[in-house]
Design goal:
The protein is α+β, with helices and mostly antiparallel strands. The chain has helices at residues 13-20, 47-64, 121-125, 127-132, 184-188; strands at 27-30, 33-36, 70-72, 77-79, 86-87, 91-94, 105-106, 111-115, 140-144, 151-156, 162-167, 172-175, 180-183. The protein starts with 12 loop residues before the first helix and ends in a 15-residue tail after the last helix.
Amino acid sequence: MIVAKENLPKLTPEEYFAWEEQQLEKHELIDGQVYPMGIYGMSGGSKNHSLLAARFITLFSNHLEGSCCDTATSDLRIKIVGTNNYTYPDISVTCDDRDKTTIQYITYPCLIVEILSPSTEAYDRSGKFRQYRKNPNLQDYLLVSSTAMEIDLYHKNEAGDWLIINYQTGDTVELKSINLSFAIEQIYRNLDLTPEPESTQLS
């Protein structure tokens, strides 16, 4: 269950930015309420989570070098279009000039990546994706397992419909949003994919 930070009144975006600067962990802002990212497993993540995120950032940055696109880490907020809500994805890519004019967040990423963990998967697949889909520029939403060689791609086609493509061992992942294809083994090389013991998973 998602739990808001206790004893805090609803915050405006400006109040949220100022308040979060004084905090030791990142927080989302949803409908005026702040939610500590530690609840979702976004701080203090596993070794695989960190390695996978680093590999995607390197892959995207190298591929997009010299272009107008920017690749961002989990330190950059996304503003949800048409709302005053802000989230932190693991990785985002924007090629929109409007995002070059903002300092504390971006609004129009074409690609978002979330590295899954047992405590975050349900939220990443449902509530968080519903927020992200409000962005008309978003074309690819990539959900990456940290315990198996498996990636789910939610891709928006030209008709505006979201298709789900599952990639596993031996597959080539295609991201049309940034015109990039790569072997799934390139991302998962040398990782220990032993599932986490159930006793360490959050319910």
